[in-house]
Amino acid sequence: MMKTKPIAIMLLATLMAGCTEDVERQAQPYLERAEQSYTTKQYSLAKLQLDSIKLLYPKAFETRKRAQQLQVRVELDEAVAGKQYTDSLLTDTRARLSPLTAQLQLDKDARYQDVGHYYSGRHRAEQQVGRSYLRPQVSEQGECSIVAFYRGKAVGAHTLRLTAPDGTFMELRAQAEPYFTTDALGRTERTDYAVPADAGIASFVAQCQSLPRVTLMGQSGNASLPFGKHEAKALEQVCELASLLRLINELERQSDELTRRIEFFSNIHRQQAAAQ
Fold first, then answer.
1. Nearest-CA neighbor of 134 among 184, 172, 181?
2. What is the pLDDT of residues 60-74, one digit of tens each?
3. I need a surface site. Which of 53, 113, 150, 265 has the fewest CB within 10 A?
4. Among residues 201, 210, 211, 209, which one has the least CA distance to residue 238?
5. Is 187 helix (H, G, I), strand (E, B) or coil?
């Protein structure tokens, strides 16, 4: 009776070996398809086949080992291709900056400012002495805003409203309480209004049959501000520049992330090669 135990163990081992070979054989077509997809640079399809091996054949250890090696090559090559595309797009987008920035003035004093603002040269303070006016501007980081300078009695403005001839309007909320200054010519109230990226304010102005009416709405009443063709043009320019700057910032972020991915998978790939 005792001799049957070794025989049973041998039979069990043979059965398990046969099951393992069968599982490896079933998983093999997925690996082959993944290799073919990798060769033709269809990285998403290759990863789908590799994921199927992990999910369907967890005991196909040899195939899974080869699949993990291929996964690293897929991730590495995909990151390299993605960075090449992103950097190419980044170069093209940066080239579009110069024609826009050449039409605007950068207000920045490196001694105390980390971020400067672009705005139309027509809206320099020295050219607007004693006047109420709007100054569309965009930061170097792509944050668009409109600064309202109002000469007169205090309004305590909290809302900037642009009203089209047909009565439709768009409103912007003040970022902070108004800032007041007084000089020999009188009192000036300054209020800054952020322009959200999805506000569409430049499109709103462009679609108006004539220039919109601008109103400061405040705690102490309302006040009108001039809005002419120069303000409309400046608003169009800074909104376009803001879009480009935001796109550049996002592409730079993606490029940095892809660089980190390339370094990560390159290290793993070297380790795998050294272990073979």
1. 172
2. 999 999 999 999 999
3. 113
4. 201
5. strand
Q: Considering the entire predicted model, what is its pTM? A: 0.82
- Measured at the CA of 256, the angle between CA 48 and CA 119, to 5 degrees, comes to 125
The domain segmentation of the chain, as residue ranges, is: 4-95, 110-249
What's the token pair of residue 218? 């405040």
Q: How far lies 132's CA from each of 186, 189, 223, 259, 270, in Å?
A: 11, 9, 10, 49, 65
pLDDT digits (tens, 9 = 90+) for 98-127: 999 999 999 998 888 899 999 999 998 888
CA gap 27, 68 in Å, rounded: 13
DSSP conformation letters of 117-162:
EEE-GGG-GGGSTT--EEEEEEETTS-EEEEEEEESS---EEEEEE
* CA distance to 72, 81, 125, 264, 273, per residue, from 267 (Å): 10, 18, 55, 5, 10
Question: What is the separation, in whole angstroms, between the first and last Cα of the chain?
Answer: 46
Low-confidence ranges of the chain (pLDDT < 50): 1-2, 7-18
